Amino acid sequence: MTKTELYIVRHGKTMFNTVQRVQGWCDTPLTKTGAEGIRYLGAGLKDINFEEAYASDSGRAIETARIILSQLPNGAKVPFRVDKRIREWCFGSLEGGYDAEMWGVVPRVLNFHNYDEMIDKQTGFKQICEAIYDADTANWAETYDELSYRVRTGFEDIAHRIEKNGGGKALVVSHGLTIAFLLNLINEESNVRMDLENGSVTRLTYENGDFTCQEVGSTAYIEKGKELEQA
């Protein structure tokens, strides 16, 4: 059986990313620059033979996946599926506001003076999720149990499907905080927060029900694509 690998991509840069607004379950399209970066990424991935491709059900993730597939020699033949379980966190009533506002509120809920202090104290994802839940006046945000269950089962089911069909590589387009959270679910010592760049690739292998992380937030594929286009 071939080794099972997930190439997990953070979607391209969007309008809300650019103006630093909270974007969880709300959605904006990729900017021209964001789409260009993903086109480079697709070119950088063109030598990889993907058995399947997945994206969250957010428009920005679907748009990203389609651009990547359009750059692959066999992209039109790669089965493409959408899975809502790998979408971004829901930030409830905080959605659409400025990032600085949300990351000003959440630390105060946890009795920190500011975001930097919260991170310096190595505050866990569980505490941050619970703080968002408490700060959400619309009661839309997910509980930690709901969030961890959907994220874990979403990625595990994708990997298990690939493994069951003989293994190989899968392209998976998801979201920054969701990818970081997945890494923490795999290994509690992982403290990646929101440092994953748009279009970066996090590569996981999957065997007998367990994930192993091979690469986190790599932008090398984007750079490779740029070099190929400029050659």
Key structural traits:
231 residues, alpha/beta, Rossmann fold, 2 domains, six-stranded mixed β-sheet, 9 helices, 44% helix, Phosphoglycerate mutase family protein, fructose-2,6-bisphosphate 2-phosphatase activity, His_Pase_superF_clade-1, His_PPase_superfam
Structural class: alpha/beta
**Using DSSP, what is the number of strands?**
6
Outline the low-pLDDT stretches: none
What percent strand? 15-25%
Quick one: biggest sheet? 6 strands, mixed
Shape, please? globular
Succession of helices and strands: EHHEHEHHHHEHEEH
Widest sheet, order of strands? 3-2-4-1-5-6
> Helicity level, as a percent range?
40-55%
What's the end-to-end separation, in Å?
A: 37 Å
Overall mean confidence score, pLDDT: 95
Structure description:
The protein is an alpha/beta fold and 231 residues long. The chain has 2 domains: 4-88 and 143-230, Phosphoglycerate mutase-like (Rossmann fold, 3-Layer(aba) Sandwich); 91-141, no CATH class. Helices cover 44% and strands 17% of the residues. It is built from 9 helices and 6 strands; from the N terminus they run E-H-H-E-H-E-H-H-H-H-E-H-E-E-H. Strands 3-2-4-1-5-6 form a 6-stranded mixed sheet. The longest helix has 21 residues, at 144-164. The radius of gyration is 17 Å and the shape is globular. The mean pLDDT is 95.
Topology:
Elements: E1 4-10, H1 15-18, H2 32-44, E2 50-55, H3 59-71, E3 80-82, H4 99-109, H5 115-120, H6 125-135, H7 144-164, E4 168-174, H8 176-186, E5 201-207, E6 210-218, H9 220-230
Parallel strand pairs: 1-4, 2-3, 2-4
Antiparallel strand pairs: 1-5, 5-6
InterPro entries: His_Pase_superF_clade-1, His_PPase_superfam, Phosphoglycerate_Mutase
Pfam families: His_Phos_1
Keywords: Hydrolase
